[in-house]
Each structure stands twice: as structure tokens, then as C-alpha cells.
Specification:
alpha/beta, TIM Barrel, three-stranded antiparallel sheet, 12 helices
């Protein structure tokens, strides 16, 4: 139908302040430099998406903004957001090294198609909204006392799962402070590639004593043998994030970890994410859907896939001081997909 045809596309580069500072082992972020995308059809319906690029993967808001116009030209040329297979194929051919840019457009395309169908995106994938796991809330690196305060505040706000960033010279002290402030919380740890395999194996002894659920990316991304050693010799399960970017990376880590972290900004969109999730699960691995510092315009797209996975870490927009978009509600960490009436659930903030 003509009213389903994409009539116009726009994008905007936006800088959104972080609520305080967000520090991991690689550095500190005070502002998230993002690119938002909107697709409008002949009937005036708008599909939204956004890119939260990471310099670790060689992307930036500059590179996304440079790539997006050509990606949007592809979408305009295809014309129909329901033609998602050719759109995905052509986006990958057009900007193979700009996964975050492709993800932004992918999310907007899926959002618009679902809105045209008059249903939420999770329903178009045939998923059960009640199967969405609870999201974790990240406690970034700070002084032990400040991390304890942040953990206490998160628990008071209803978040029962904490993800604690480590990769410092006082890691144990920091985690002990967090555990003391949140004795009943489920805790996961992310070292962001900072430890050696030997350090990680040793550290898992006190991680286990402190009730850590699993350890994310303890060693550098290219050290698959190190991941394997930590998994086999350590005392807590291990997850691969930086070591597993797309579905094609899953076989290499399949016998080295217990969990794979899938992010739309790494793999390039919703359908690549589904492929990576299914590939990991076919190899007997659990999956966590993760994110960067992102707008609700992109987080909502990730939320639609959460019924497929065992774990979620989708607090990227919760860590911002402000956002241009509202998204899927996460009261007490619960991802309320059922409240999304159409599309991803993202919409312009009023």
C-alpha cells in the first residue's frame, strides 16, 4: 500500500549528558555522543532508532553521521520497511564497518514496520513479553564508598541485579563495598578486558565468595585461550563480550565461555542480533542482551528481543541525565514489554 511507503528520512547528532560520570577500566564518559534516526511513511507514522557508537570498535558519532545518509538512501530506495531481508543485506554491503550506524537504521525500520502493522515489535517476532528477564543496573568504577552508595541507591530504587565494573588496583575492596551495601542483590562483574588470565583465575576465588553470578570479559578480546582457562580453572561462570562481536565469532568462543553478550551496536541490528543469539544457544551457551550508553530510541529495540535470552543488561538510557525519547518502562528492573502498544515502544519525549 502506498501509505506504507517511506516518505522521508532524517537523522540528528545529539550529545546527552551522563548522570554524573560513567567510568570503566578504559576511561570515563561524561556525555554520550549519539545519532538518532527517524523514518516517516506516507501516513505520517514515524519509526525511530539511534546509534550509540563505541570507539573500542572503531566507531564514533562522526563516523556514524558520515555513514547514515547513504544507509538512509538504501532504505528510501527499497521503500517498504517490511522488506527487511533486502534492507539488511544492502545495509551490510553499504557500511560493513559501521555496525552502530546500521543498528540505528535497522531499529527504525523495524519500529516503523511494526507501527504500520499496528502491533508491538516483540509480537511481530512471536515473543512472550512475560519471558523478558530483569535488567541489571550498572555500578561504574568509583571510590569504594561511592560505589557502595550507588549500589545502595540502585537497590532502593528497586533494582535487584547489579553489574559492577572492575579493572582497578583495588577491585576486591570495591566489590566488598558494593556487596556490603547490597547484600541481597544478584551481582555480576565486568572487567572490560583488564585482567590477565592468571589474575582472573585468582580473582574468581573472592568473586565466588562474594556471590558473583558470572564474570564478563575478564581478559583481552583476542585472548580466547585466556577465556578458556578462566572458565575451566576459575570458580564462577564466564561471559564473552568484546571477544564475541557477531554470530561469526560464536564458534571460536563456544568452548571457552558459558555466556555470550549480544549488543545491537556490535552486530549491526535486530536480525543480526537474533542470528547471534540463536547461534550461541545452538552451541549450548546462555545469552545476555547488553548495550552501550544509548538513547531509549535504541534500547527499546533491544528490549523487544529480551524474551529470547537468559539475561539482560539494558540500562544504557537509565544512566543518562536526559533523553530525547521515552522508551520501554523498566520499573524495579522489570522490562515491561507488554506496555509497548506499537513498534519498539520508543517515542519522542513530551
Amino acid at each position: 500500500m502506498a501509505e506504507h511507503t517511506i516518505a522521508s528520512t532524517t537523522f540528528e547528532r545529539v550529545a546527552l549528558p551522563v548522570d554524573g560520570e560513567f567510568t570503566i577500566s578504559r576511561g570515563t564518559t561524561q556525555e554520550a555522543d549519539l545519532v538518532t534516526v527517524e523514518l516517516t511513511d506516507q501516513a505520517g507514522r514515524v519509526g525511530v532508532g539511534a546509534a550509540g557508537p563505541s570507539s573500542y570498535y572503531g566507531e564514533s558519532a562522526d563516523s556514524v553521521a558520515a555513514a547514515v545518509p547513504e544507509l538512509l538512501s538504501v532504505v528510501e530506495d527499497v521503500g517498504n520497511p517490511h522488506r527487511q531481508q533486502p534492507i539488511k543485506r544492502r545495509l551490510a554491503a553499504t557500511a560493513p564497518d559501521e555496525a552502530a550506524a546500521r543498528a540505528a537504521v535497522s531499529i527504525a525500520v523495524h519500529d516503523l514496520a511494526a507501527k504500520q502493522a499496528g502491533e508491538p515489535l516483540y509480537q511481530r517476532f512471536g515473543l512472550d513479553p512475560d519471558a523478558a528477564p530483569e535488567t541489571s543496573y550498572t555500578v561504574a568504577i568509583d571510590s569504594p564508598a561511592a560505589m557502595a552508595d550507588h549500589a545502595s541507591e540502585a537497590v532502593a530504587d528497586g533494582y535487584g541485579v547489579l553489574k559492577v565494573k572492575l579493572g582497578t588496583d583495588r577491585d576486591r575492596e570495591r566489590l566488598e563495598a558494593v556487596r556490603g551495601a547490597a547484600p541481597d542483590a544478584r551481582v555480576r562483574v565486568d572487567a572490560n578486558c583488564d585482567w590477565t588470565a592468571e589474575q582472573a583465575v585468582q580473582n574468581t576465588a573472592w568473586l565466588a565468595d562474594l556471590g558473583v553470578e558470572f564474570l564478563e570479559q575478564p581478559v583481552p578480546a583476542d585472548d580466547i585461550q585466556g577465556l578458556r582457562r578462566v572458565t575451566r580453572q576459575g570458580e564462577v561462570p564466564v561471559a564473552a563480550d568484546e571477544s564475541c562481536v557477531t554470530a561469526g565469532d560464536v564458534p571460536a568462543v563456544a568452548d571457552a565461555v558459558d555466556v555470550v553478550v549480544v549488543k545491537l551496536m556490535k552486530c549491526g541490528g535486530l536480525r543480526p542480533a537474533i542470528r547471534q543469539i540463536q547461534t550461541a544457544q545452538a552451541h549450548g551457551l546462555a545469552v545476555m542482551l547488553g548495550c552501550m550508553l544509548e538513547s531509549n530510541a535504541s534500547i527499546a529495540g533491544s528490549c523487544a528481543l529480551t524474551p529470547l535470552v537468559e539475561y539482560a543488561d539494558l540500562d544504557g538510557a537509565l544512566l543518562l541525565a536526559s533523553d530525547r525519547y521515552d522508551g520501554v518502562q523498566m520499573t524495579d528492573g522489570r522490562i515491561d514489554l507488554a506496555a509497548a502498544e506499537r513498534g519498539t515502544g520508543a517515542r519522542r519525549a513530551e
